[in-house]
Design goal:
The modification 4-aspartylphosphate is found at residue 72. The protein has 483 residues and is α/β, with parallel strands linked by helices. The protein has helices spanning 30-44, 54-63, 80-89, 105-113, 126-154, 167-178, 196-206, 208-211, 225-233, 250-253, 269-281, 307-312, 318-324, 339-352, 364-372, 378-392, 405-414, 425-447, 452-459, 463-472, 477-481, and strands spanning 22-26, 47-51, 68-72, 95-100, 118-121, 158-159, 162-163, 186-189, 215-219, 234-235, 247-248, 258-262, 283-284, 293-294, 298-303, 327-330, 361-362, 397-398. Mean pLDDT is 86; it is low at 1-18. The structure holds adenosine-5'-triphosphate (ATP). Adenosine-5'-triphosphate (ATP) binds next to strand 7, helix 7 and helix 16.
């Protein structure tokens, strides 16, 4: 039997703080049982329980989950083979390793056929057991993770903090769970505000490999070429004017975790070559530094741009695109998942509810308006609208007039002359005029694709007046340029 001292330098296989793994040793001889327990405890730094036969083991397995069961085959009462059979039949989510004497090798081989992970001889080196246990625990953890993800996937509208009832998004969840135990590079494509960063975080959290490491986001569009290089790769002291200190770049910061390259379509060509090299070689040098730095990072990139167009126009390297696009996730815009509006509204209401006050509700007309709005800014725009409504609603009910004008205006426009005798006539007239003016202006902007001069000609107003009204109604001119 192995001696405890032999394994003192082995590392724990479970670096994830979220999954607490436990081991069960099943062995009838007290000395062997205790020395195995001490060995495993020391080497794996995990909780280890023991049982003297199969029946006691089953009782323990019914009480708490064990990631790994290490069992002898020959024992009184219930032997190892019967225990294995029961674990298989009852679908107990434990991985089994068999320890056996020379005489029982055929039984151990039979146990392998029944689905046990592996077997080893009692005369084997202790290190062999430790290595086997480490491998088995790692694989178990991945299997448990995937099972937990699948449960989330089919059990509701939330998947690692991403809310959705939409079948299109459920396909995305399925894809994330499929790639959870890989480190494949992922490319997320979606309009602004569709939740690209949120999904990138879900990918990071879904994987036991990355989750215990950092999630490092970089907005590539926020830097010019030189700054982006030093942002990503860091620099050595004195490598350029102003580099008065050594700087650790984002790639290095993300070691062991995920680097999220947002707005990848905006990376200048010369930087694209450098990125490609890092993705291929998994190492790089700091700016002004000679020593190559090895990194173990999952890269998730995102863009709202049409990558095919960028490649066609010669603005993005195809080879880099292929590297990034190993797994591609297309996020649908909010207007293509109307079933999500209510779920998200309720989520944001809870998020923005004022402490100490009741969580607001939404009146049916306001909810209808929220569901019908086109949401060019997608979930972020919806989030802002709900935040504003939570602040302005007075009696704990969000009504149409608490919504931004462009959304409220759509409802009022449906029946602009509805008379409300509880409010003074001038107030209602002013609202109707404003709603009509806003609709007129939006239509003119749509026709002219946001061109203020042309819009002035159509409306008969001055350019200045158009600009003032655009500000007054909080209209985003850029929304019309894209149409
Ligand atoms: N499915 C979702 N469930 C809950 N919140 C979400 C969801 N999707 C997005 N959000 C929230 O909406 C906001 C915008 O999301 P995010 O920043 O991930 O979008 P984005 O596509 O990366 O935006 P941009 O293109 O502007 O970078 C964030 O506050 C995020 O938390």
């Amino acid at each position: 039997m192995p001696s405890p001292a032999a394994a003192s330098d082995a590392a724990s296989p479970d670096e994830s703080p979220q999954v607490q793994q436990r081991v069960l040793v099943v062995e009838d001889l007290p000395d062997n049982r205790e020395s195995l327990k001490t060995l495993l405890k020391l080497a794996l730094k995990l909780e280890v329980d023991t049982a003297e036969d199969g029946a006691k083991a089953l009782a323990l397995l019914a009480e708490r989950p064990y990631s790994l069961v290490i069992t002898d085959l020959q024992m009184p009462r219930m032997d190892g083979m019967k225990l294995i059979q029961k674990i298989q039949d009852d679908g107990i989510p434990s991985t089994v390793i068999v320890t056996t004497g020379h005489g029982s090798v055929p039984d151990a081989v039979e146990a392998m056929r029944m689905g046990v992970y592996d077997f080893l001889l009692k005369t084997d080196e202790p290190q062999r057991l430790i290595r086997m246990a480490q491998r088995a625990l790692k694989e178990r953890r991945l299997q448990d993770e995937v099972a937990a993800l699948r449960e989330q996937l089919h059990g509701g509208h939330t998947f690692l903090n991403v809310l959705s009832k939409s079948p299109k998004m459920h396909d995305v969840f399925e894809l994330i769970s499929q790639i959870a135990d890989t480190t494949a590079t992922v490319m997320i494509i979606g309009e602004t505000g569709t939740g690209k960063e949120q999904v990138a975080r879900a990918i990071h959290d879904s994987s036991a490999e990355t989750r215990s490491g950092p999630f490092v986001p970089v907005n590539c569009a926020a830097f010019n070429e030189n700054l982006l290089e030093s942002e990503l790769f860091g620099h050595e002291k004195g490598s350029f004017t102003g580099a008065d200190k050594k700087r650790v770049g984002r790639f290095e910061q993300a070691h062991g975790g995920t680097l999220f390259l947002d707005e990848i379509g905006d990376v200048p060509m010369s930087m694209q070559v450098k990125l490609l090299r890092v993705l291929q070689e998994r190492r790089f040098e700091r700016v002004g530094g000679g020593e190559p730095i090895e990194i173990d990072v999952r890269v998730v990139a995102a863009t709202h741009r049409n990558m095919d167009d960028l490649i066609r126009e010669g603005k993005f390297r195809e080879d880099l695109y292929f590297r990034l696009n190993v797994v591609r996730i297309d996020l649908p815009p909010l207007r293509d998942r109307p079933e999500d509006v209510e779920v998200l509204v309720n989520h944001f209401i809870r998020k923005f509810a004022r402490p100490g006050r009741a969580v607001p509700t939404v009146d049916p007309e306001a909810l209808e308006a929220l569901k019908k709005a086109p949401w060019p800014g997608n979930i972020r725009q919806l989030e802002n609208a709900v935040e504003r409504a939570c602040v302005t609603c007075k009696d704990g009910v969000i009504r149409v007039h608490n919504l931004p004008r462009d959304i409220a205006g759509r409802v009022e426009a449906k029946n602009p002359f509805q008379v409300d005798l509880s409010r003074p006539l001038p107030d209602q007239l002013a609202e109707i005029t404003a709603a009509f003016e806003e609709r007129y202006l939006r239509k003119a902007l749509r026709k002219t694709r946001g061109h203020v001069g042309k819009c002035a000609t159509i409306t008969g107003l001055s350019r200045r007046s158009i600009t003032d009204k655009i500000a007054q109604y909080k209209i985003e001119k850029s929304d019309f340029k894209k149409d």
